[in-house]
C-alpha cells in the first residue's frame, strides 16, 4: 500500500470543514484591516530564497532541477515570493500595499506534532510604510487575526536594534552565529561562541538583554540606539490600543531579512512547537532588483492553530437524502434539482438499492428523507420524513423545501 510522504497529511471532509471555517474567520479579520489576498507560485527560482532567508531555512529546503536545467525550490515561506511579485507586478502601485495570503509551504524538517514538511501559513505583508504606526499595525493585525480563531496565546514584541548595537563590533559571520544561538535559545552555545572570540562580557550583556522586560532597562544594557523614538512610539500605540504583550529583546527570528521590530506569539496549550506566529520589519526588495522598500509582515502557522483549537465543530449542513423507486426516479431527479437550486444539500440514491436499504442509509447519513415512489410521482408530491423526530408528511416539493429550510435556520 502506498503511503503519503513523511511530514504530509491527508485531510478528511470533517477536518477540511473545520479548517475552512477557521480560515474564514482569519480572512474576515484581515479584510477589516484592508488586506487583500495575493497568490504566488508554489515553486520559485532557488536564488530567491538563498539570497536572504538564512542558513536554517536553506538546509530545510526542497530543491530540484527541472527538465530545462533550472534550479528551483518549493517555497519554504511566502514573504520572499510576495516581495518578488511586488517588484515584478506592482512597483508603481500607490503605497502602502496591504496584502495577505493563505498558502502551503514546504520545509524538510523532522516531523512531529505541529511540525510538518507541508504546512500552511496565513500571513500578511505591509509594503512601503516605514513608521512606528506601521510596525504597530502589523502587530495589531496579527493579534486580531489570531484572536478571531479562538486560540489563547502570548505575544512577545522586540526590536533587533538593541541586539545589533551590542554585536556591532563583531564580524558578520559571528553576528549571524550569535543570532542563530539566540533564535534557538541556546545560551550555552552563545557563551561558547563569544568566549572563543574573547568576548565573555558581551555574553553577559546579551543574557541580561534577553531577560529584561522594560524599555528603560533595555536602553541601559544596549546603550542609546538611533531607533529609540520609533520603538517608544510603537509601544505607545500598542499600549493605547490595549494590546496585551510583553517586551522581549531576545527575539532573533530564524530568517535573515529582519531589520527592526520583531515579534512572536506562543500558543498556551501546545508543546515544543508552540510558536504560532512570527513576523517583523524587513528589507528584501533591493536584493531582488527593485528599489529599496521598507516592509513588515507576519505569518501564522495555520496547522498549529488547528492543533491548538483541538476538535472544531464546523456548522453542519442540513442533508436531504432522496429516496426513490424506479418509477419515481425522473421526478426525483427534478425534485433534487429544486432542492439544490434553493441552496439545500440533496443526495440522490446511486446504488440501485431497494427502498428499505435506501431509508436505512438515509437515516445514518441525512437529516431528512424525501421519498418518491410511483404514487408521489403521479401526484407531483413528495413524502418528507424528518429522520430525527420520525415525523412524516406528504407535500408539494416547494412546501418540503420550505420545511427543510426552516429546520436549517433553527
Ligand atoms: P517563520 O517564523 O519561519 O516566519 O514561520 C511562521 C510560522 O509558520 C511559525 O511561527 C510557525 O507557526 C509556522 N511554521 C513554521 N514552520 C512550520 C512547520 N514545519 N510546520 C508547521 N508550522 C510551521 C516566516 O515564515 C516569515 N515569512 C514570517 C514573516 C512574514 N515575516 C515577515 N512577513
How would you briefly describe this protein structure?
This protein has 410 residues and is an alpha+beta fold. The chain has three domains: 1-152 and 268-316, 2-Layer Sandwich (BirA Bifunctional Protein, domain 2); 153-256, Bira Bifunctional Protein, Domain 2 (BirA Bifunctional Protein, domain 2, 2-Layer Sandwich), CATH 3.30.930.10; 319-409, Rossmann fold.
Structure commentary:
With 410 residues, this protein is α+β, with helices and mostly antiparallel strands. The chain folds into 3 domains: 1-152 and 268-316, 2-Layer Sandwich (BirA Bifunctional Protein, domain 2), CATH 3.30.930; 153-256, BirA Bifunctional Protein, domain 2; 319-409, Rossmann fold. 42% of the residues lie in helices and 22% in strands. It is built from 16 helices and 16 strands. It has an 8-stranded mixed beta sheet, with helices on both faces. Strands 13-12-14-15-16 form a 5-stranded mixed beta sheet, sandwiched between helices. A hairpin with a 5-residue loop joins strand 15 (382-386) and strand 16 (392-395). Helix 8 (187-196) runs antiparallel to helix 9 (200-211). The radius of gyration is 28 Å and the shape is elongated. The chain starts with 12 loop residues before the first helix and ends with a helix. The model has no long low-confidence stretch (mean pLDDT 94). Residues 77, 79, 107, 109, 115-116, 119, 121, 123, 125, 254-255, 275-280, 282, 297-299, 301, 303-304 line the site of histidyl-adenosine monophosphate. The site of histidyl-adenosine monophosphate has 25 residues, from strand 6, strand 10, strand 11 and helix 12.
Amino acid at each position: 500500500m502506498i503511503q503519503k510522504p513523511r511530514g504530509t497529511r491527508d485531510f478528511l471532509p470533517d477536518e477540511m470543514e473545520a479548517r475552512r471555517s477557521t480560515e474564514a474567520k482569519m480572512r474576515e479579520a484581515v479584510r477589516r484591516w484592508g488586506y487583500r489576498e495575493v497568490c504566488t507560485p508554489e515553486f520559485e527560482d532557488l536564488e530567491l530564497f538563498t539570497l536572504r532567508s538564512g542558513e536554517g531555512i536553506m538546509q530545510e529546503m526542497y530543491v530540484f532541477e527541472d527538465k530545462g536545467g533550472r534550479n528551483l525550490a518549493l517555497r519554504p515561506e511566502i514573504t520572499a515570493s510576495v516581495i518578488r511579485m511586488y517588484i515584478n507586478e506592482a512597483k508603481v502601485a500607490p503605497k502602502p500595499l496591504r496584502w495577505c495570503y493563505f498558502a502551503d509551504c514546504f520545509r524538510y524538517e523532522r516531523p512531529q506534532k505541529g511540525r510538518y514538511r507541508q504546512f500552511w501559513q496565513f500571513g500578511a505583508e505591509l509594503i512601503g510604510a516605514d513608521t512606528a504606526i506601521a510596525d504597530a499595525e502589523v502587530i495589531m493585525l496579527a493579534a486580531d487575526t489570531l484572536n478571531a480563531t479562538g486560540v489563547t496565546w502570548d505575544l512577545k514584541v522586540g526590536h533587533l536594534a538593541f541586539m545589533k548595537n551590542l554585536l556591532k563590533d563583531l564580524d558578520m559571520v559571528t553576528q549571524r552565529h550569535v543570532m542563530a544561538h539566540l533564535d534557538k535559545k541556546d545560551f550555552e552555545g552563545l557563551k561558547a561562541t563569544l568566549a572563543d572570540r574573547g568576548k565573555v562580557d558581551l555574553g553577559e550583556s546579551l543574557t541580561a538583554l534577553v531577560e529584561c522586560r522594560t524599555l528603560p532597562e533595555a536602553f541601559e544594557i544596549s546603550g542609546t540606539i538611533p531607533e529609540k523614538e520609533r520603538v517608544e512610539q510603537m509601544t505607545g500605540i500598542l499600549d493605547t490600543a490595549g494590546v496585551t504583550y510583553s517586551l522581549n529583546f531576545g527575539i532573533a527570528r530564524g530568517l535573515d531579512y529582519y531589520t527592526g521590530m520583531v515579534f512572536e506569539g506562543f500558543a498556551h496549550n501546545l508543546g515544543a512547537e508552540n510558536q504560532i506566529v512570527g513576523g517583523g520589519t524587513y528589507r528584501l526588495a533591493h536584493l531582488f532588483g527593485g528599489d529599496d522598500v521598507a516592509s513588515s509582515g507576519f505569518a501564522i502557522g495555520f496547522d498549529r492553530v488547528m492543533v491548538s483549537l483541538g476538535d472544531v465543530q464546523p456548522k453542519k449542513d442540513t442533508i436531504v437524502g432522496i429516496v426513490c423507486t424506479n418509477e419515481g426516479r425522473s421526478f426525483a431527479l427534478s425534485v433534487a434539482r429544486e432542492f439544490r437550486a434553493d441552496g439545500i444539500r440533496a443526495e440522490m440514491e446511486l446504488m440501485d438499492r431497494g427502498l428499505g436499504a435506501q431509508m436505512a442509509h438515509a437515516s445514518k447519513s441525512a437529516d431528512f428523507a424525501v421519498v418518491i415512489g410511483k404514487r408521489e410521482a403521479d401526484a407531483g408530491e413528495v413524502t418528507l420524513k424528518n429522520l430525527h423526530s420520525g415525523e412524516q408528511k406528504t407535500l408539494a416539493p416547494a412546501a418540503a423545501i420550505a420545511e427543510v429550510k426552516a429546520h436549517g435556520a433553527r
